[in-house]
Amino acid sequence: MSLLEIIKLVGFATGAALHLYIAWLIWQRRLGSRKNLNQVERAFIVLGLCLGVWFVGNLLISLHELLLTRERLTAALRAWDTLTMIGVALLPAALLHAHVAFYGMMTRYVRLSPRQVTLTGFALYTPMLFLPYAVYLIATGPYESFLIKLRPLLLPYSIWFLAALWSAAAIDWKIKDRLDAKTARERAFFKRLALILFFNGAFEFYVVAVARSGPNDPLWIIYVLLGMLPTFLVAYHVYRYKIVDVAIKDSLVYAAFAVVFIAIYTYGIRRLDEILVERVGARPGVVEAILILGMFALAGPLVRLMDRMVQRLFASEFGLYRDVVRRVSAGAAGFGELNSLVLYAQETIRQGLELESVRIVRLDEMAPEGPDRRIAQKMIQWEADIVEANEDLARAGATAAYALRREGELIGIMVVSSERHTLTSEKRAVLDVLAGQVAIELEAGRLVDEKVRLERELAQRERLATLGQMAATVAHEVKNPLSSIKSIAQVMREEPALAEYDRDLTLIVTEIDRLNRTVSQLLAFSRPSYADARPISLREMIDSTIALLGHDARESGVKLGVEVRGDATLAGPEASALREALSNLILNAIQAAGSSGEVRVEAAIGSEGGDRRLVLSVTDTGPGIPPDAQRRVFEPFYTTKSRGTGLGLAIVQRRATELGGAVDLLSPVAENYGTRFRLVTPLSQG
After folding, report:
1. What pLDDT digit, counting tens, does each position of 466-516 carry?
2. Of the spans 232-241, 493-502, 549-558, 607-616, which averages the highest pLDDT?
3. Among 626, 551, 618, which Cα is nearest to 585's?
4. What are 553-568's pLDDT values in tens digits?
5. Res. 192: pLDDT tops 80
6. Could you count the other beta carbons within 10 Å of the beta carbon of residue 454?
7. Do the beta carbons of residue 162 and residue 201 sit within 8 Å?
8. DSSP string spanning 384-409?
C-alpha cells in the first residue's frame, strides 16, 4: 500500500466514524436535554449523517479499488459513488440549515421564528431536484468515477457549495459579534469556525471548479479530509470543556492495542510470510492466515495486559485526586466553624492538585461591586458551572472559577490560579467534583454556624427575659417611692422657711427625674411598646416628641433642628413604637453633641417595590463612635458613658424590629465627626 492509500483509508474511516458517532450522540440526547429533539438538534443530526455518508462512500470506494480494482463489480462501485454523491450533494444545504437553526435559537427566535427556520430549510434543499438526474448519470453508460460523469454539474454545484459555506461562515461571525465581549472563549470558537468554513469553501471551489481534480488526485483527497476540520474544532471544545464525558482510559487501551496489532502485522506476520514463501516455498497467504488467527486468539490476554499497564499509568494520578476528594470530605467533619473549614479546604485542594492558589468565596461575603460578585452574576445569568477567559479572572491573576451550588442555587465560587498547561483535563474534572463537595460542606458548615448562633441568641433572650422580668418588678417597686419623694421635695421647695435648701431640693428633683428615666428604660426594654389609643399624624408625633425633649436640648446648649418631608397617619402601635425609638435616638444625640452642638431630625416618606416606607434619621455633631464600639452599640446594657443603662439603642432596635424595619448607623458623618442613626420601617396602608 502506498502512503496515499493509507492516508485515504485512515482519513475516510475516521471521518465516517466521527460524524456518525456525533449524530448518534445527539440522537441519544447526550448533548442536549432528554426531551424531544428540537429544531437545532434535528438539523445537526442531518448534517452529521450527510458528512458520515460522504466519508463512508469514499471509504467503500477506496476499499473496492484496493481489494477488487475498478474493473470488477462495477455495479457495487456505482452504488458507492451514488452514496458518496448523495452525501456531498446534501451537505451544503444541511450545513447552512444547521447554522440558520442555531442562529434562530441564539436570538431566541426574534429575528427568525421556528416556522421561518423550517421554511428556510425547505428552500435550501430545493437544488436537490437535480439529484435524480445525477443518480441516472452514475447508473447508466460505461462506468466512470462520479467526479468525471458529473463534470457538467460540478461548476454550478461548486458555486452553490461556496455560497453555502461562506454564508455559514458569515452566520458564525455574526454570532461572534452578538456575544458579550467578555465571553472570549465562545467568541474565539465562532471566529475560528467561521475562518475554517471560509477557507474550506474557497479551497473546494479551486479543487473542483478550477483544478478539476479527479478521484485519486492528492488535492481531492486533501479537500475531502479538510471536511473533518470543523468537526475536529467542535469535538475539541466538546472534550476540552467537558460538554460530554470522554472515556479516556478505555480509548487509550484500544488505541494502544490497534497500534500494536498493526505494527505486528505489518512488520512481523507479513514479513515472515514473504520469507517462508521465498525460501521454503510455502503457499502464499496460508502462513499469514494462520498467524492472524493466532493474533486474534491472543487479543484478549493482550488487551487485558495493556489495560493493567494503562491502569498503572492512571492509578497514581487518579489515586492522588481521590485522596484530595476524600480529605476534603473527611476533614470537613472535624470543623465546627465555617471560616476554618474554608481555609482547610483551600489549602488541601491547593496542595493536593499542585495549584498556585485556591480561593473559596461565599456569596454572602462578596463585595457588592467586586470582581467575585461579577463572576457569580455571570454564572447565574449563563447557568454556567465554570468561567474561564474572563476579564475579572485575568485581573485577579486567576485561571478559572467553579460554581458552588446547592439544590440549583449558587452559594459561592471557587477561584483557581494555575498555569494553563498544568491545569489538565483530569484536574479540571476533579475540580468540578470538588466544587460539588465543597458546596455540600459549606452548606453543612453554614447550618452548624446558624444552629450555634440561634442557640446563643436563644440563651441571650432567655437571660434578657429573666433580667427584664426582674427589672420590671424592681422598677414597679421603685417608681412609686420615687414619685412620693419627688412630690415631697417639690412641696418643700414652695415653703419660704426652707428657701436656703432650694438648691439641694432642686438637685433631689433632678436626680429623681434621672432615676425615673432609668426605670422607664428598664420597663420599656422588658415589655412591648405601649399602643396609643388613637391614630396620629407623623408630623404631630415628631412635633410632640421634639417639644418633650426641647428642655433637655436647651439645658445642654444643643440646637435642635427638624425637617419633615411628607406626612402620613400612623396607627396606634406604629406611633407608640416610633415615638419611643425617636425619643431614645434624640436623647443619645443631645448627650453626644455636647454644649454648642447640633442635632438634626429628618423624616421622609418614600416607596420601594410599591410599598410605602418611612425613613427617620437623627444626626449629631459629636465626636462620633469608634469603629470597635459600632459593632456593640445595639447590645443591651453596653454603654461608653459613666452614667446610663445602655438600653437606649437596644430599645430602638427592638422597636424597629417590631415594626418590620431596621436601624443602622453611620459614623463619622463628615470630616471625622458626627453620627447618624437611620431607622427605616414600612408604613401601614390604613
Report:
1. 766 776 677 667 777 878 888 888 888 788 877 788 888 888 888 887 777
2. 549-558
3. 618
4. 888 889 999 999 888 8
5. yes
6. 10
7. yes
8. -SEEES-HHHHHTT-SEEEEEEETTE
With a CB cutoff of 8 Å and minimum separation 6, the contacts of 96 are 124, 164, 167, 168
Task: Give the cell for residue 414.
Answer: 471557587
Q: How many CA atoms within 13 Å lie on the side-chain side of 639?
A: 14
Rounded distance between C-alpha atoms, residue 62 and residue 56, angstroms: 10
Number of H helices, E strands in the chain: 22, 11
Question: Strands 569-570 and 559-565: what pairing?
Answer: unpaired
Residues in the chain: 686
- Helix/strand/coil for 423: coil
Distances (CA, A) of 385 to 124, 236, 444, 661: 37, 19, 21, 36
CA–CA gap between residue 45 and residue 545 (Å, rounded): 77
CA distance 472 to 157: 98
Q: Of 642, 657, 656, 627, which Cα lies nearest the Cα of 591?
A: 642
Task: Determine the pLDDT at residue 675.
Answer: 92
Query: In angstroms, rounded to a whole number, what is the distance separating the alpha carbons of residues 358 and 527?
Result: 50
- Contact criterion met (CB below 8 Å) for 675 and 666: yes
**Residue bearing cell 415628631:** 542
CA 367, 369, 374, 375 torsion: positive or negative?
A: negative
Which residue reads 499542585 in cell numbers?
354
605 three-state secondary structure: strand
Give this prediction's pTM: 0.43
For every residue of 330-346, DSSP letters joined together read HHHTT--SHHHHHHHHH
Task: Tell me how far apart the alpha carbons of residues 582 and 577 are, in angstroms, rounded to a whole number.
Answer: 9
Phi, psi of 191 (to 5 degrees): -65, -45
User: Please, are residues 84 and 90 in contact by the beta-carbon 8 Å criterion?
Assistant: no
| Residue 403 to residue 684: CA distance in whole angstroms | 41
Q: pLDDT tens, 363-413?
A: 888 887 788 888 888 888 877 888 887 778 877 778 889 999 888 888 899
Contact between 599 and 564 (Cβ < 8 Å): no
Residue 561, burial from CB neighbour count under 10 angstroms (0-12, 13-18, 19+) = exposed
Does residue 92 have a cis bond before it (omega within 30 degrees)?
A: no
| φ, ψ (nearest 5 deg) of residue 650 | -65, -40
Cell for 444?
Answer: 453543612
- Whole-number Å distance between alpha carbons of 135 and 146: 9
Compute the distance between CA of residue 133 and CA of residue 159 in angstroms, rounded to an integer: 19
Query: What is the rounded distance in angstroms from the CA atom of residue 232 to the CA atom of residue 107?
Result: 26
Main-chain phi, psi angles of 401, to 5 degrees:
-130, 130
Tell me the sheet residues that pair with 536.
570
* CA distance linking residue 233 with residue 199, whole number of Å: 14
